[in-house]
## 1
Amino acid sequence: MNIKNYINGKFVNPIQNQWIDNYNPSVGEVYGQIPNSTQEDVEKAYQSAKEAFPAWSNTTLAERSKILSNIARLIEQKLAILAEAEAKDNGKPLSLAKAIDIPRASSNFQFFADAITQFSSEAHESVGLGAMNFTLRQPIGVVGCISPWNLPLYLFTWKIAPAIAAGNCVVAKPSEVTPMTAYLLGEICNEAGLPKGVLNIVHGLGTTTGQAIVEHPNIKAISFTGGTKTGAHIARVAAPMFKKLSLELGGKNPNIIFADCNYEDMLATTVRSSFANQGQICLCGSRIFVEQSIYEKFKKDFVQKVSELKIGNPFEVDTNIGALVSKQHLEKVKSYIDIVEQEGGKILQGGNKVEVKGSEKGYYLQPTVIEVKSNQCKLNQEEIFGPVVTIMPFTSEEEVLAMANDVTYGLSSTLWTNNLQRTMRMSKNLHTGIVWVNTWLLRDLRTPFGGQKASGVGREGGFEALRFFTEPKNVCIKYE
Ligand code: TXE
């Protein structure tokens, strides 16, 4: 199954005719090829976007809103096809793609179809000076959107929807590891009536295709989600070009559990926040801290629940844990399990690769629970990004707050307590861009989304996203 680039509303081969294998991780086999686009392909995509920009940026908000709603509706209509494509490309359970990934991709477009009709600006009267100021928020022009392999269509559309809603035209690159649903989005955009050239999708490696987008002199803003190291590289390339940058990077998120929590709710949600999407979500609570008085009980109950999770082929209806996204990622995650002893840890559950019947060559790993003695160990300091969590006890708020904040990342925290004063104290002092209290991954798309420290720069979501994708201009008129 060869897929093509989507440029100027058409599906085209890469100019240099370079291709990369596309794997189905659940069976460990190549099932297609994707373009490894070069700078020439990116230039062609840029030219299409540039030509489409004058008309698109002058399209009425009502017209833009209608087209984005069409895209949202068509994604919903094609849920089954898109979910199957996602599960095949990423290895995640089909049930998860159906319940989360694809519906959220549709919501991303519907949300910004509505938001753009409500996005306003400010005026400031210079009283006594006979002057009036108003702020224009104009689209930037051609922008670049680069997304990762963990939530492919979900994160791809989370960038594209606000970018085009705000009147920009886009050169977008999905991860080369999970290109399929991005490819299918092209046809949906044509069917939805999106004018050609407004969205262009180029496939290929980050170091070639992604790099060409970031260093293109006229692509004036880059919205990126992916690894922290890659984000730092992109910032080095883009900074001297004074491009606007939105960087959503890795996380090493604390899950802090006090004894006064709603225990059953906490336990069920903690299994999800630990292992959803095989733990390949930057928001997963990968460092679990439990108040001493319930630590032994939690340890026993949590290990029991984790042992009941079903590892299987993503297309089996009762699969909870599918395949990891690639062989190299499986090896990377396993390399952390292999150092548990030397890091002073103890594997309480899991830790082994799994051979799934009928999918023997797939990339499967048991959900793994590791007890650690110190927050300073590599297992608590580095993003593993797989079905691996650590647990350790704490005895006071001060102690757990210090450990929670003592990492380079600052994306999200989860806090389980019913004590209001403690909730406010902890929420105000946790160094993360998001704090979930008595829940996890409950998402209101109006809220600012993103992290601090090594988890990135800038925020996505709601009007934050529309501000990122527009340039504010102050117009000051003297009339007296
Ligand atoms: O991200 P990459 P990957 C973390 C997680 C994971 C690590 C690598 O730790 O193990 O990042 O994951 C493109 N110029 N997260 O491989 O490599 C690349 O082609 C321009 C957290 O997915 O950063 C892909 O499209 N683009 C994250 C995208 O960047 C480049 C979710 C992400 O690739 C590039 C996923 C370059 N030089 C991984 N190099 C989160 N926060 O959600 C790569 N790319």
## 2
Amino acid sequence: MPVILAIESSCDETSAAVCRDGIILSNYTANQTVHERYGGVVPELASRAHLQSIVPVVDAALSSANCELYTVDAIAFTQSPGLIGALLVGSQFAKSLALALDKPLIAVHHMQAHVLANLIENPELQFPVLCLTVSGGHTQIVLAKSALEMELIGETIDDAAGEAFDKSAKLLGLPYPGGPLIDQYASKGDDSKFKFAEPQIDGLNFSFSGLKTSVLYFLQKQTKENQNFVDENLADLCASVQKTIVTILLKKLKKAALITDIRTVCIAGGVSANTGLRKAFLEMGKKQNWNTIIPSYEYCTDNAAMIAITAYHKYMDGQFADLSVSASAKASWQ
Ligand code: KG4
Ligand code: ZN
């Protein structure tokens, strides 16, 4: 019955979670609002905010799990990928705790953890599983043969899906991060009102940089004729952008399921919180006869519960790190 304390600090959320025997007891996240006024995450500010939040966040996770630090069996942390300064705060904190408490250390790959977020509420999940992981930094199709054996079979060649949301939102005058705002406005809009370019990319890879350009040129043309074009059409613009992104994502996911003949399909990452994607994914799953799984919202965006669940599987498999392990901004898939 291992009790694991997990820490996530790869980008702009400081999060800590406690799990016992693969069951999440607490998951506490401090969001950094300091980046809003800059229109994107400022790495140095993220590191400083992690430094300020990490002790209270870990304390909150332990106390809401009714757990004392000395009763923890292992300390887990996000090793990669992410912003190096941000990762260093979490990794040094975890290593210090492991050293001081003389407990084993578990290093976790953030993208593997996003996939395994699906196990939190579905511990009986049968592998192999196909997962579309869509976040601010990544867009991937992952074939998970087991909890610890994963293969990357498709990814973006330029922008991530979250970036496509955030950059389109910026062009529409919305603050960062614009993804959730596009989602909100889209619920009141007509998604067939405007058409944006869909990329033609072979295989299972994605491309989103053309969409941003397509939105930019379209808005430039329209606002020349009517200065209030964006304000007057915001909901329809958001709905149309969202539909384009969702269509691009799900076309490739469907292709991946056909190629691999895998019927258990899940989504993960911050963009999997998107209402349009969740709805269209479930509809596609019904048509394709998939067993579809979506994590609850709190497990879609960055969180330490997903680090804890991954660490639990690594613990059971005896995969521990030693204190010389270092954080890494980029990391090979496995
Ligand atoms: O996984 P995540 O929290 O952090 C990274 O690892 O990147 O993902 C953050 C991304 C941002 O681009 C944000 O705009 C997007 O997820 N996002 C959404 C929604 N909620 C978060 N995009 C569209 N609709 C949402 N509801
Ligand atoms: Zn993430």
